[in-house]
Task: structure prediction
Amino acid sequence: MSAEPRIETDTSVAHGFVLPPLRHPVRTIGGHTFDFSRRVAVMAIINRTPDSFFDQGATFALDRAVDAAVAAAEQGADWVDIGGAKFAPGPEIPASEEIDRVLPVVEALAARSDVVISVDTFRPEVAAACIAAGASVVNDTTGIHDPALADVVADSEATLVITHSLAEPRRPHPRPHYDDVAREVADFLAARVEFAVSRGIPEDRIIVDPGHDLNKNTVQTLELTRNLAAITALGLPTLAAVSNKDFIGESLGRPKNDRLEGSLVAATACILLGARIVRMHAVPESIAAVRMTEAILGFREPIDPVHNL
Result:
């Protein structure tokens, strides 16, 4: 794949919505098959960190993390994403400590559910341990900062999420600047996809994430969102991680615990622009919003269409 984003010439029209085509829409991830040309997946979030930006350590205790992960699966989440280190700047967390945080949750969830398990990490050691324990997705928010992570994924059957960000892991990146944020993010992702493929990861095991709010301010993230077509035109499934982020809070003037409506609207907008996975905190509400959006797009039939019959 060229580092220049490849704009497909044909399009998929869903009753008035023009959606970018996917080169590899049908994906087998873990024990599940997703046809992203007609399906949107909901990824739930479990943070086993004492300082996560949204829940502030609510699932840091092992039993709470496991219970929350199992509950998300039972509520209908397609994936559960488990992280042991937040993206925001902070002291380094050794790989051994990160493994101690996330591995028991992966093991416990794999023993109790067949839900797709994702591990949010940029460390190859953490990824390898979690893949061996049952994770089938590695969610790297650093754009493959460590090339060895790509090698770990290539040597497995796992899927890799490649996310746009600019800073060194856990380091600040103040006052980010972009001349054309959507195009620059697309160029970055295309280049990192090309790198991942060169390390042996096939395209049909790669997902891209434009990194809402990651090394971007609110105005830049909003511009990126309304120009998401530049990302989805890459032809790979796009993940939108928008839930409760600061661009929502700053757009609405809402604190972190009052951003549900904004999160659902942001996720819906991303889906209508071609995103096929949304990473969300509120699982039941997000599933309802996603299923309704699928019905509007014509991806699914109504469950009980009896009105006016």
Summary: The chain has one domain: 12-297.
